[in-house]
Amino acid sequence: MTYKVFFDTRQALNGCDQYGSTIAKSAAFMQLIEGQLDSSEFQRLSSPPVTRDDILLVHDKTYIDALFADSRAAGNMSIDSRALDACLWSIGSMVGALTQSLYEDMPVCSCASDLHGAKAIGETGIGFLNGLMVTAAKFIQMNPKAKVGILDLSFQEVGFSQETWNENPGIADHVIRFNSAQFFKNPNLNWGEFLAWIRNSIDAINSFSCDAVIYQASAEMHLIEDLHGFFGEAPMRTRDGLVFGNIKAPIAWNVGGGSTPVGRDLANWVLRGHLSALLNSSKLRTS
Q: What is the DSSP letter of 50?
């Protein structure tokens, strides 16, 4: 058994305020994999970055023009000009993982963090770059008949740049997507209801007959997270096992979420949770 893991050092970024704290986590997770697994147990792969034209499959031109003109002045979570390049490499990593998943018997991991940018009409900034949607759009562009599922288990409510997405029916009609943010608005979140929603989402994804599925295994719901936190390590393992064990299509997944700065003991709990998800991914999918 060999875990396929996509990571390029250019998708990691240390020493960057705000958005960089999540970009830096990708390198920390790769280091954990290399430290905990024997070299024969995983294969590190890389994929080229996505381009401006790829992002335009999902986002409107005005937003992208501003972002590429000066990412430091482009609004939310874009303090450092290096962040845009890191994002392009991170999304490219996810495209590579999704493509590779077609040839694997088990899910493929991308060490990419926070690809669920939630951009509403008129908003700007690198924090709204929707990597999950760009990944799906690029994959469908390369495989025009393919259908893609997106299961984004994160806190962030996703707006999807609907004004541009609707202009690409050849892509939009081939995607089914679910985002769990609705549950985390309730401080009395019920674990049983959340699991039921995941099961229903998986059933819908399977009924859609997806050729491949993107799963964002966000850490934001972990109890130790700085900004959020509902569930401990055991429920997170149950969540991941449910997804990996029941989605019938090939899966590419990424390590979303993680507000706790890399290097703190609490952040190490999050990284270990991601490693648990990687090991969980070896579960065979149902036929």
A: P
pLDDT greater than 60 at residue 263: no
Interval 194-208: pLDDT, tens: 899 999 999 999 999
pLDDT tens digit string along 80-112?
667 778 888 989 999 999 999 999 999 999 988
Strand locations in the chain, DSSP E? 3-6, 42-45, 108-110, 148-152, 175-179, 212-216, 251-254
Closest CA to 82 of 141, 18, 175, 146: 18
CATH number at residue 224: 3.40.800.20
Q: How many domains does the chain have?
A: 1
286 belongs to a structural domain: no
Which phi-psi region, left, alpha or beta, contains residue 25 (left: φ > 0; alpha: ψ -120 to 50)? alpha
